[in-house]
Design brief:
CATH topology of the largest domain: Fumarase C, Chain A, domain 2
Strand content: 5-15%
CATH class of the largest domain: Mainly Alpha
Structural class: mainly alpha
Largest sheet: 3 strands, antiparallel
Number of strands: 9
Number of helices: 19
Helix content: 55-70%
Number of domains: 2
Order of helices and strands: EHEHHEHHEEHEEHHHHHHHEEHHHHHH
């Protein structure tokens, strides 16, 4: 059970995404009650204008809403903001988004009742997942409208994998329709939940991917590399970047080669710069984790309502902070993919085994088209441009700058998926090359070979590879490959 207390880690978001239930804590419940009481006092006092509580939204901020209209006001917001389009995000990502939004409300300055977070927890724990559109909301405030409509008994959700609407999702969760009070709809749909959830899930996946890319690179070096000096630990004392040093240490512990005093040679940069390329992603993951976990401990809606009845209209819903690191991670991940694809190409052309890793060259094409697929995936990832530098104007000019964080984080997740499959191709090439050359591998790489040959069924002859590339790509992201290598007794992160 993951506690929802206003502070989540990346690992906890991933755990919820992968099926762990969640529950609001008593401390968070108390903070939320205090903030909600402040909203009630503001309404009862009837002498303070608070955006989104007793006013319209966006450029309609100066139009008052009467007390008797406030509940309808919040319901109207959900309906008017259900404008995002496109296919729904995955169930895994939906779970992460619900967790992140519930947790932000649990910080306790959003002015909502604890019951709202309880309802989100129940939906998630009962696996009743509101459909969250994946397009048409580049920043915030539209994509979660359907979540609110589901709670109100009007929306659409997945129940046991089937699309249901109206009261059916609530019936499946054992809930009555939720009557949104003043401030509660805008608190639910505003904020950075989608951007932050996507980036958190991507970080969790990338932690596994970068180590899998280290394994693949070390395996390629074991097969065709010639200069172990590139991984000498003294190099990484002279340029003390921790991420570089970690990847180099992985290569040393996984391979049999050790630096010597023999004449120096050089491997292609995709091998020689493995620590620098993969290590850069490690460095950026560390920084990005700090950013995302700060956001996971933050209130991210507007306005914020403090227990002393102070209300502040602000910009905490803006995701620029997270959008920037999402773009950075995507750029660095693409370069890891470029290095992996280049090493696959080296393996296909190496003299140590048959051309294209075909068992009967000419009659067979071998893995030439698998490498082509990897190159294509790298190219496709490269078309997913940065988004955090983009903006647009909405609401008659009142909303004149946006983070485009939903776009940046979507591009990041798509990049992770593509590059995981690129690394999978390198691993398949390594497995075929090992079998053709009869190379005896050190323990860690032997464990990797066993895992890859089982997951991808690396067999003789020309065979269809697409399903194997996809399944092995999943193993690159979900840490099962890394865990298999660790179980051999090799110390890798």
């Amino acid at each position: 059970m993951i506690p929802i207390d206003g502070s989540l880690t990346v690992d906890e978001v991933r755990a919820v995404a992968d099926g762990e239930p969640m529950e609001l804590t008593d401390d968070a419940r108390e903070r939320m009650d205090q903030s909600r009481a402040a909203v009630d006092d503001i309404i009862d006092g009837d002498d303070i204008s608070v955006y989104g509580v007793n006013t319209g939204f966006g450029d309609l901020k100066d139009i008052s809403v009467g007390r008797e209209e406030m509940e309808q006001h919040q319901q109207n917001l959900l309906r008017s903001h259900q404008t995002a389009t496109g296919p729904p995000v995955s169930p895994r990502l939906t779970r992460a988004i619900l967790a992140v939004r519930a947790n932000a409300l649990a910080v306790g300055v959003s002015g909502v009742r604890p019951e709202l977070v309880d309802r989100l927890c129940t939906l998630l724990n009962m696996d009743v997942l509101p459909l969250i559109p994946s397009e048409g909301s580049a920043d915030n405030a539209c994509e979660l409208a359907n979540v609110g409509l589901v709670l109100a008994g009007e929306g659409e959700a997945l129940v046991d994998g089937e699309r249901c609407s109206g009261s059916e999702p609530l019936d499946a969760a054992g809930l009555d329709p939720f009557r949104f009070g003043p401030k509660e709809s805008i608190a639910l749909i505003s904020g950075t939940a989608v951007t932050t959830a996507r980036t958190a899930v991507a970080i969790a996946d990338l932690r596994a991917l970068v180590t899998a890319a280290d394994i693949a690179g070390a395996w390629t070096f074991e097969l065709v590399g010639t200069e172990p000096g590139a991984f000498d630990e003294r190099i990484f004392d002279a340029r003390p970047v921790a991420g570089h040093a970690t990847t180099a240490a992985h290569v040393r512990v996984l391979t049999s080669a050790t630096p010597s005093s023999a004449d120096m040679t050089q491997d292609p940069l995709s091998i020689r710069c493995l620590p620098q390329v993969n290590g850069a992603l490690r460095e950026h993951l560390g920084m990005s984790t700090d950013t995302v976990e700060t956001e996971l401990a933050s209130a991210t809606d507007n306005p914020l309502i403090f227990p002393d009845k102070t209300a502040r209209s602000c910009g905490t819903f803006n995701a620029q902070y997270v959008a920037g690191v999402a773009d950075l991670l995507a750029l660095t991940t693409r370069k890891v993919g470029a290095g992996s694809e280049a090493r696959s190409s080296l393996l296909l052309a190496a003299d140590e085994h048959s051309p294209h890793l075909a068992d009967e060259p000419g009659l067979e094409s071998g893995l030439a088209r698998a490498q082509y697929a990897a190159a294509s995936l790298v190219t496709e990832a490269g078309t997913l441009d940065t988004a955090s530098d983009r903006s647009f104007i909405a609401s008659s000019g009142q909303e004149d700058i946006h983070s485009a964080g939903n776009v940046a984080s979507a591009n990041l997740l798509a990049t992770v998926d593509k590059i995981a499959r690129v690394v999978a191709v390198e691993l398949i090439c390594c497995a075929r090359a090992t079998r053709q050359t009869g190379t005896t591998l050190p323990p860690g790489l032997a464990a990797a070979r066993e895992f890859v040959e089982d997951a991808a069924d690396v067999r003789s002859g020309d065979v269809p590879w697409s399903a194997d590339i996809s399944s092995l790509g999943d193993a690159v992201r979900d840490r099962s490959l890394v865990d298999a290598v660790r179980q051999s007794g090799v110390d890798i992160e």
